[in-house]
Amino acid sequence: DTEVTQTPKHLVMGMTNKKSLKCEQHMGHRAMYWYKQKAKKPPELMFVYSYEKLSINESVPSRFSPECPNSSLLNLHLHALQPEDSALYLCASSRNTGGLNSPLHFGNGTRLTVT
Amino acid sequence: EDQVTQSPEALRLQEGESSSLNCSYTVSGLRGLFWYRQDPGKGPEFLFTLYSAGEEKEKERLKATLTKKESFLHITAPKPEDSATYLCAVQAAGNTPLVFGKGTRLSVIA
User: Fold this and answer.
1) Which residues of A touch B36 (CB under 8 A)?
2) Whole-angstrom Cα distance, residue B24 to residue B20?
3) Per residue in B87-102, pLDDT tens?
4) Bond preceding residue B8 cis, omega within 30 of 0
5) Which of B23, B38, B47, B98 to mutate to test the interface with A (most CBs of A within 10 A)?
6) How many CB atoms lie within 10 A of CB A66?
7) Phi, psi (degrees; rounded to nearest 5) at A44
8) What are the chain A neighbours of B98 within 8 Å (beta carbons)?
């Protein structure tokens, strides 16, 4: 079992819906990440939070809105998505950003389908 | 620009047939090289971190090695349960995000 928990495991939403993805970790990590992964491709970084502050936004469209309520929780709010946004959305955490001995620990993702 | 290239793209082995996966990298100031295993529909699972040339790490049938230009993931006497996609990622100097390779899809046939 992974120590990063993501809910829901699967989500189907229409292009006019608003939904949220949730991520939780209790390893005391201070950096949290959202990645998007398409089939047979590596994960693509979307956002990085460091000490609950947004530190990196990889030019992600505004229909994706991240939120970090506290050091253990990370949300991704979704609104007016397009079918091409269908993918596996992965949350990850690490002890800190850019530090030595600070590998990413991933959750098992939310499989999102936009109809 | 930091780059990571993994080869082969796909590898099919018979059970017990040892082989190696390659990860070549170009990065300004390597802080760490990471190997992950990913099963279909799951998130990547952390395997190893390597920091400096000459370093080696082992876990069961897997052994990772690092030179100044590349890393190898050696798989000794693989079993069908070793079938997965193996991802390599590098961390460059500074507070930069990981750069992932495209992965090697390994299939081990009984």
Assistant:
1) 106
2) 13
3) 999 988 877 788 999 9
4) yes
5) B98
6) 19
7) -110, 125
8) 45, 104
| CA closest to B41 among chain A residues | A108
Question: What is B5-39 written as a DSSP string?
Answer: EEE-SEEEEETT--EEEEEEEE-SSEEEEEEEEE-
Q: Which residues pair with A9 in a beta bridge?
A: none
**Contact: B43, A97; criterion CB under 8 Å:** no
Q: What percent of chain B has pLDDT over 70?
A: 100
At A78-114, the pLDDT tens digits run: 999 999 999 999 999 998 876 666 889 999 999 999 9
For A6-25, the pLDDT digits (tens) are: 999 999 999 999 999 999 99
Residue A99 pLDDT: 60
- With b for 16 or more beta-carbon neighbours within 10 A and e for fewer, the B78-100 pattern comes to beeebbbbbbbbbbbeebbbbbb
Q: Shortest CB distance from A106 goes to which of B31, B43, B96?
A: B43
Peptide bond before residue B78 is cis, with ω within 30 degrees of 0? no
Query: First-to-last CA distance in chain A?
Result: 30
User: Containing H/E element for A94?
Assistant: strand A87-94
